[in-house]
Amino acid sequence: MVLRLIEEGRPLDEIVFFDTGWEFPQMYDHIAKFEAFTKRKVTILHPPKSFHYWMFERPVVAIKGPMKGQVHRTGNGWPGHNWRWCTGIKRDVIKSYCKKAIQYIGFACDEKERASPDGLKKGVQQIYPLIKYGMSEADCLTYCQSRGFDWGGLYKYFNRVSCFCCPLQRLKNLRTLRRHFPDLWTQMLNWEAKLGTRNRGFRGYDKVADLERRFASEDRQPSFHLFE
């Protein structure tokens, strides 16, 4: 989206990226390459407190039960489908920084249901260039690749790239992460060991360790076929 906006000379005052601290290392190289290619600086936003703090250290006050109003555990644990605390922090930081700026949002034409019908989101004007251009996610990837961007090969392995440790990603992606990015997978296992019982689960599994056992079992079965 940004490449095409620049190439067409559309008004663009600032390019913003929210760094969760849980990005693939290749993403930081990609941003540097993007800045060099476009001659435009990317503003990097950060959470007021690290995601590590929220996951492991934040005092969590009970809102009901016998400990209502008291700290009953430390750390949020992994995000989950019903409690996307990471998304909430990202949204709040971007909203605070951008305030009333007109925002270009990179929704592709095959995800137009995510766009606001009237172009307003809580009073903020949003523009969806990719939907107007009729560009699908696949079209966008081809467009970027034609200009030399490869994200360090991430899209050879994943159809979407977000936080490497996201509990909401597909089982296929988690399996791929373990196989091709073992250092990051080990980091997830180490984090989980620190959580103890403060774990909200990965895609119906209790822990990353359960997925590790499943994937290891699959590796021991050469004729194992995956159906998802």
Structure report:
- There is one protein chain.
- This protein has 228 residues and is of the alpha/beta class.
- It has a domain of 159 residues.
- The protein is built from 9 helices and 7 strands; from the N terminus they run αβαβαββαβββααααα.
- The strands form 3 sheets. Strands 5-7-6 form a 3-stranded mixed sheet, with no helix packed on it. It has a two-stranded parallel ribbon with strand order 1-2.
- The longest helix is centred in the first third of the chain and has 14 residues.
- The protein is globular.
Secondary structure blueprint with pairings:
Layout: H1 2-7, E1 15-18, H2 25-38, E2 42-45, H3 51-57, E3 59-61, E4 71-74, H4 85-98, E5 103-104, E6 120-121, E7 124-127, H5 129-133, H6 137-145, H7 171-180, H8 182-195, H9 208-219
Parallel strand pairs: 1-2, 5-7
Antiparallel strand pairs: 3-4, 6-7
In short:
The protein has 228 residues and is α/β, with parallel strands linked by helices. It has helices at residues 2-7, 25-38, 51-57, 85-98, 129-133, 137-145, 171-180, 182-195, 208-219; strands at 15-18, 42-45, 59-61, 71-74, 103-104, 120-121, 124-127. It has a 3-stranded mixed sheet with strand order 5-7-6, with no helix packed on it. Strands 1-2 form a two-stranded parallel sheet. Strands 3-4 form a two-stranded antiparallel sheet.
